[in-house]
Specification:
This protein has about 180 residues and is α/β, with parallel strands linked by helices. It has two domains: about 60 residues, Ubiquitin-like (UB roll) (Roll); about 80 residues, 2-Layer Sandwich (Translation Initiation Factor IF3). It contains four helices and eight strands; from the N terminus they run ββαββαβαβαββ. The chain is rod-shaped.
């Protein structure tokens, strides 16, 4: 059975007295190697400088520890995580709706909307809706969607070919990488 960890120690890295290795490689705050020594010696060095001993890599042989200010280190890590989160872009699915009897100008407007969506990194769902007996002309809707895919060839690749779903014909486009 695994030992029970205290709640506040679960996700914290090994620092200071929590480092339980017979020998460790110690690196100074500015990156200079201080050598291989016992953790107690490294703790004395860290205490002299009013800094913490932080385990950086336990996979190395011997494990690598750094003498640094742990509070500052933790703040920097959180700051990097926030920056990385800001730079992430989640791609949404934007929809462009039309009918198969669409006029030329209206069609061009829909294509321009789709271009804008694709340039911003979003996927596009092109939908052609049918009303009443229009569903008999699904081949015209398929031709329209293929024309749209052809017009957007520079910006998109077809993720899902035109497919009929109920009273709609749908095609998915994703931005080119």
């Amino acid at each position: 059975m695994a030992p029970i960890k205290k709640r506040n120690q679960q996700n914290q890295p090994n620092i200071n007295e929590r480092i339980r290795f017979p020998k460790i490689r110690v690196v100074d705050a500015d990156g200079t190697q201080l050598g291989i020594m016992a953790p107690s010696e490294a703790m004395e060095i860290a205490d002299e400088r009013n800094l913490d001993l932080v385990l950086v890599s336990d996979k190395a042989d011997p494990p690598v520890c750094r003498v640094m200010d742990y509070g500052k280190f933790k703040f920097e890590q959180e700051k990097k995580a926030r920056e990385a989160k800001k730079k992430q872009h989640t791609s949404d699915v934007k929809e462009v709706k039309m009918r198969y009897k669409i006029q030329t100008h209206d069609y061009e407007v829909r294509v321009n909307h789709a271009k804008r969506f694709l340039k911003s990194g979003d996927k596009v769902k092109a939908t052609v809706t049918f009303r009443g007996r229009e569903i008999q002309h699904s081949h015209l809707a398929e031709a329209l969607l293929k024309k749209m895919a052809n017009d957007l060839l520079d910006f998109a690749e077809i993720q899902q070919a035109p497919k009929r779903e109920g009273r709609n014909m749908i095609m998915y486009l994703s931005p080119k990488k």
